[in-house]
Write a structure and sequence with these properties.
This is F-box domain-containing protein. The protein is an alpha/beta fold and 1225 residues long. 36% of the residues lie in helices and 23% in strands. Helix 35 packs antiparallel against helix 36 and helix 35 (857-870) crosses helix 37 (892-906).
């Protein structure tokens, strides 16, 4: 082979012939080059030369003697702009940059200009191999018989004939020796002693935390000495072999140990050496053999350590004479009787207000001593704390202030100490003193022990916290440590937090709860939901932050959207947010850009997805600071008021969407903006604008500079598409002018001063906006002229009157006033008290009509009295009343008033009150429109259906939110009508005993009635199906009864995406299908009746619903040429007509022409007549293995003149043969 390849390699013409041969294969060029090098030789030709000749031959240019000397020098990676090189490097991790810097000196300099860093490096070396982790990337090099096995992320495993340490260090050393490398934590586990590991780390090595485990103390010291002292803060130290006292002293003398803050060592600590630990903040180590008196020495020495915060000491292998009690007594701690596992003891540091807290714990054969330094209150508060009478004097002083007890207790704890007195004890003495019981020596021992909240079962406490909102939980967790732990077990979350601060005002909102604190002459006024306003003499920001800060600083708080509007500069806003603050979306407006950036820096990068920053004057340096923040770099959506030019736009390449202003550019720069954005891989949409642009350029100029076709005449909007080079994607530009008009302001000023103009506004809204609900019209009206010019009731009156009559001059004062009622009712009671109900029913049946009763109050009172005498529930009475005289004769509140007044008068409770002199009662329609929307938002779609049946205004409000269901399931048979609306079940039908029942909303009770169950059921179902703009995801219809009540079951068109239809015959199925909105309907499951004819099936194929669907499944038997009607479908599932011969080759050829096809499944019954898996596979031209057939055969067919394939999976299931076909692109 080497001689044959040499013949090609040494002849230029032969080399080019070999390249031509590869080009004829039409394989990817990289595969062709790899194959060429394997056959001819790795050094036969460089890739750029191969690429040049390959593409010449591929294009049909067969000149073997073409002279390349006149061609321009091809560009290399070093010809890239430096900015682009930086951009590429930013997207590489630290390991990839290591490979990049090994290319050449120029690239090395670029990589080294940005310091590299790792969060964690872990190196493990033993006799079998070595492994190292660089952050999340794992590398392994293991010794085997052939040399070593190398495993590198994203590369196949390779075997080298080198020694594993030689090969492994070749890969690892370039990373460790990179200049200015920063590491947060390095873990070194060196068990093998070899010269290869000398100088493993460069000196100095920059790391904050190190953990060392080596085969002996000398190797451990060698590794420790490589670390940069001062920068190294934490040391974890363990070693093998024998350690002498000289070795230990050598460790203590290293600069690394002397300048560290935290030590975790497995070397036994002698008490005399403890003084060497005085510079440490915390340490953990085992104690050498010690006497009980040594624990006092340890305590006394540690109490002198200025930097000390905590330590943990461990002593093992002690005898029965030296246990937890012995240590506690040596420390002079109080020791209770009985067995002990844990003792806690406090030691006051001499001449200090600080304590050492000892926690001594025994575990099997080990003794643990944990020591923590505790900061305490000042000396004066300690004096009070230690004197019971002084404590009660302070409580009396608080009671004399007559402030709320919670504020008094908070103030008491702040001065005396948080643990000075429990709240129940404070409450007892506070109320005694408040009730002028000043006996300081009262003996409480005789009082019954009060139950506390902490005696509740834990399960009940969790139940309580579940029903509290996040703000209430904040107050609860401030009570004590157990409650705090219980509350913190459920991470708090808010959908929206909104904080606004101006001069003399601080407001904040947690979801739907609003708080505020305003500066007043006497101090400040604090407003809290569900509490009266609180007056205080404190500064408003200080007071407000006492309530706001605890919520913001709750552990693990999660916020969906945070809005910050900080327009005042004050020290109380320093450290407003904890770092990091967990929010998905943030909107920041501040008094200057520096404050905005400070607030933004508190957000947790990576978790923060959306940023909106609005600020005043911004310099170029400040804009650069924003773009350099990690929050900006890892965001997905950004909106800012800052002006950008096309060069700064490059920093937005990682964003999906953004909105900003642009400045300082000419017509040609619009093309540059387009070209820059077209290179953004994550880009989805953006909005760029600046009102000053139109001073210099109009919409036509901008469109022409982008190469858009501009029509003649005036323009408001131009839409233009630009295809991204070498891509199937487009950028769609929508160029629009927005003109500012003062007409609406002038119109509002006129409307404010004229009632006629108010009516004009209503008429205009009625005519111009008549396609929208009245509630929307009223909102627009209020936005136009103000909220206080007309009530919703008056607006509704004029809205409908002007809509019908267009009459401005109607005088409402001449409307008839309802007459006095008492005398009339008294006579009616006297007349009807002795009348039988059946006689009255006959009278009403013969004399009732809506025209007769609309304007005759006395006759309406007769009907209401009739309902009172029946003694039925008022709702049933009102329904019966409306049925007799019409639904618009009287509204429910008026009916309710007269019903109960007649009821009281009938019982003899004579009351001279009359409705006309009563104050006007508030009704549901007097609610603000915004509150009505809030209420409807909490109702499901079924409940909204009932609500919209109340009156026209409520109907308009409900219809403003288009109703939607995920699933509607309707089934009808000879005994019942059932329907399911999402998870709510309804049924109406015949009971087992022949009666009729109605069952609603998962209720166990049934409503009995004597109507046709189809008619009764449709009274409840039809209003839902006929709601305006109803949207349904999936509709299931199983109609097995031909009742006339089910005609026109669905409104036309019915809006939904997926349908499943099964009916008692094909005509009913087609009728139901025809009601669905074609184009919007995507998926059809159609079960045809077995009696369906060929004409019925063709009628199904001709429906618009079938023609515009994307997915169809049916039990209709499929003929080969029926498939021609399926070309628009993405997927389908049909049985094949097994009674006739089937040509599967025709099926394959037809399906291969479908552009939108994704998959299908065809199934046929196999009766053993040759129609089996082998027959199908042979017809399709698939290779069939010898011997007994498998249960499944898979076959691929290349679509002609295409790179796509059809994959056939042919199998058998019991008596069926199925074919699954999938297009592979």
């Amino acid at each position: 082979m080497e001689q044959l390849s040499a013949v090609i390699k040494n002849n230029n013409h032969n080399l080019k012939t070999a390249i031509l041969y590869e080009a004829l294969h039409k394989k990817p060029i990289f595969d062709s080059y790899r194959k060429f090098c394997n056959l001819v030789g790795q050094d036969a030709m460089e890739y750029p030369d191969f690429e040049f000749w390959y593409y010449r031959f591929y294009r049909g240019e067969m000149d073997f003697d073409y002279d390349r000397s006149a061609d321009p020098t091809p560009k290399t990676i070093m010809d890239m702009p430096v900015k682009l090189m930086y951009k590429i490097m930013e997207n590489l991790d630290t390991v990839e940059r290591t490979y990049l810097r090994s290319m050449n000196q120029s690239i090395k300099d670029i990589v080294d200009s940005r310091p590299l860093s790792f969060e964690k490096i872990e190196i493990i070396i033993d006799d079998a191999g070595m492994g190292w982790d660089l952050d999340e990337k794992k590398f392994i090099c293991e010794q085997n018989e052939k040399g070593c096995l190398v495993e590198i992320p994203n590369f196949p495993h390779t075997i080298k004939d080198e020694y594993f340490l030689t090969k492994g260090l070749k890969c690892l050393s370039p990373v460790l020796n990179m200049p200015n490398l920063k590491v947060n934590h390095i873990f070194l586990h060196i068990i093998k002693d070899t010269v290869y590991l000398n100088n493993l780390l460069p000196i100095p090595f920059h790391v904050k935390s190190v953990s060392i485990l080596a085969f002996d103390i000398h190797k451990s010291l060698e590794l420790l000495s490589a670390m940069n002292p001062g920068e190294l803060e934490s040391i974890s130290f363990d070693t093998g072999g024998i350690i002498t006292e000289e070795d230990v002293l050598e460790i203590y003398e290293t600069e690394q140990f002397k300048q560290a803050k935290i030590i975790d060592s497995q070397i036994f600590l002698e008490v005399d050496n403890l003084r060497r630990f005085s510079h440490l903040e915390s340490f953990e180590c085992p104690l050498a053999y010690s006497e009980p008196g040594d624990f006092q020495r340890i305590r006394d020495m540690i109490s002198t350590f200025k930097q000390f915060k905590s330590c943990k000491l461990e002593r093992s292998e002690y005898g029965n004479h030296f246990d937890i009690r012995t240590v506690a007594e040596a420390l002079e701690a109080e020791t209770p009787f009985g067995p002990l596992k844990t003792i806690t003891y406090r030691y006051r540091i001499p001449e200090s207000n600080e304590f050492l807290k000892f926690k001594i714990k025994e575990n099997e054969y080990r003794l643990f001593i944990k020591i923590v330094k505790i900061q305490t209150m000042e000396q004066l508060s300690t004096v009070i704390n230690n004197n019971d009478r002084s404590m009660k004097t302070c409580i009396l002083y608080e009671a004399l202030k007559k402030k709320p007890i919670f504020s008094s207790y908070r103030h008491f704890c702040k001065l005396v100490g948080q643990d000075a007195m429990e709240y129940p004890d404070f409450e007892f003495w506070y109320y005694r003193f408040l009730h002028k019981q000043h006996d300081f020596d009262y003996d409480r021992s005789a009082d019954p022990t009060p139950k506390t909240i902490m005696e509740m079962p834990v399960s009940l406490m969790y139940k309580i916290t579940e029903n509290l909102d996040q703000v209430e939980r904040t107050y609860l967790r401030s009570m004590n440590k157990p409650l705090k732990d219980m509350v913190d077990s459920r991470p708090p979350s808010f959908d929206v937090i909104d904080i606004t601060a101006y001069d003399k005002y601080l407001g904040w909102e947690f979801d739907d709860k609003f708080f505020s604190c305003e500066q007043k002459d006497y101090g400040c006024l604090l407003k809290i939901p569900n509490f009266p306003p609180i007056k205080s003499d404190e500064f408003y920001l200080k007071k407000g932050m006492e309530y706001l800060s605890p919520v913001l600083k709750m552990p693990n708080i999660q916020v969906n959207h945070l809005s910050l509007h900080i327009m005042t500069e004050n020290e109380h806003f320093n450290d407003l947010l904890p770092v990091p603050f967990h929010a998905k979306s943030v909107s920041i407006t501040a008094f200057n850009i520096n404050k905005s950036l400070e607030l933004l820096s508190a957000m947790n990068p990576g978790e923060l997805e959306s940023i909106k920053i609005t600020t005043g004057t911004v310099t170029r340096e400040n804009l650069s600071k924003l773009c350099e923040t990690e929050q900006f770099k890892q965001a997905i959506h950004v909106q800012t008021s800052m002006s950008l030019n096309e060069d700064r736009l490059l920093r937005f390449s990682h964003l999906r969407t953004f909105k900003c202003a642009i400045d300082r550019f000419g017509p040609m720069d619009f093309q540059r903006i387009r070209d820059i954005i077209s290179t953004f891989e994550q880009f989805e949409s953006c909005e760029l604008g600046n009102p000053r642009i139109l001073i210099y350029f109009d919409i036509r100029t901008v469109a022409e500079s982008l190469g858009a076709e501009v029509p003649f005449g005036p323009l408001q909007i131009i839409t233009h598409r630009y295809q991204i080079p070498e891509s199937n994607a487009f950028l769609e530009f929508k160029i629009e002018e927005e003109e500012f008009s003062e007409a609406m302001e002038q119109f509002s000023a006129i409307a404010e001063n004229s009632e006629d103009h108010l009516k004009v506004c209503i008429l205009i809204l009625n005519e111009v906006l008549k396609e929208i609900p009245i509630c929307n019209s009223y909102r627009n009206f209020c936005n136009l002229v103000g909220d206080n010019f007309m009530t919703c009731t008056d607006f509704e009156f004029w809205y409908y009157r002007l809509r019908r009559f267009k009459n401005f001059d109607y005088n409402r004062s001449v409307d008839p006033v309802e007459l006095s009622f008492k005398n009339m009712v008294d006579s009616l009671v006297m007349r009807f008290d002795k009348i039988k109900i059946d006689v009255l029913d006959t009278y009403l049946e013969n004399n009732t009509s809506s025209e007769c009763y609309n304007d005759d109050h006395q006759k309406m009172y007769v009907l209401i009295l009739n309902e009172v005498l029946r003694k039925k529930p008022i709702f049933h009475s009102y329904l019966n009343f409306c049925k007799l005289v019409g639904e618009n004769t009287i509204n429910y509140p008026d009916f309710e008033f007269w019903y109960y007044r007649i009821y009281r008068l009938y019982r003899g409770e004579h009351d001279d009150c009359d409705q006309i002199i009563n104050p006007v009662r508030k009704t549901i329609m007097d609610m603000p429109v915004s509150l009505m929307y809030k209420i409807t938002g909490y109702l499901d779609t079924v409940e909204r259906t009932y609500l919209r049946s109340m009156n026209r205004c409520l109907k308009d409000i409900v219809d403003f939110r288009p109703p939607s269901f995920d699933v509607i399931d309707i089934s009808a048979d000879d005994k019942s009508l059932k329907w399911k609306l999402d998870n709510k079940l309804f049924s109406c039908g015949l009971s087992d005993y022949g009666g009729r029942f109605l069952k609603i909303l998962n209720s166990s009770s049934e409503i009995k009635h004597n109507e046709c169950y189809f008619k009764k059921g449709m009274e409840y179902l039809s209003p839902v199906l006929k709601m305006a703009n109803l949207k349904v995801n999936h509709l299931s219809l199983n109609i097995m009864n031909g009742s006339a009540h089910l005609n026109n079951l669905l409104p036309v068109p019915f809006h939904m995406k997926n349908v499943s239809i099964r009916a008692f015959n094909i005509n009913k199925s087609l009728e139901l299908l025809s009601a669905l909105n074609p184009g919007e309907l995507e998926s059809i499951h159609f079960v045809a009746d077995v009696r369906a004819t060929r004409e019925d099936i063709l009628e199904f194929y001709e429906t618009e619903q079938f023609k515009k669907a994307k997915r169809v499944e049916s039990n209709i038997y499929l003929h080969e040429y029926d498939l021609l009607r399926f070309s628009h479908l993405k997927s389908f599932k049909f049985p094949i007509n097994y009674r006739e011969p089937v040509d599967f080759e025709i099926i394959r050829d037809i399906i291969s022409t479908f552009d939108k096809f994704e998959s299908c499944e065809l199934k046929s019954i196999n009766y053993g007549d040759g129609f089996d898996i082998r027959t199908v596979a042979e017809d399709l031209g698939a290779e069939i293995p010898f011997g007994p057939l498998l249960k499944t055969i898979t076959y691929r067919y290349r679509v002609p003149e295409s790179k796509n394939y059809l994959e056939f999976k042919i199998g058998e299931e019991e008596s069926h043969c199925y074919i699954k076909i999938v297009k592979i692109r």
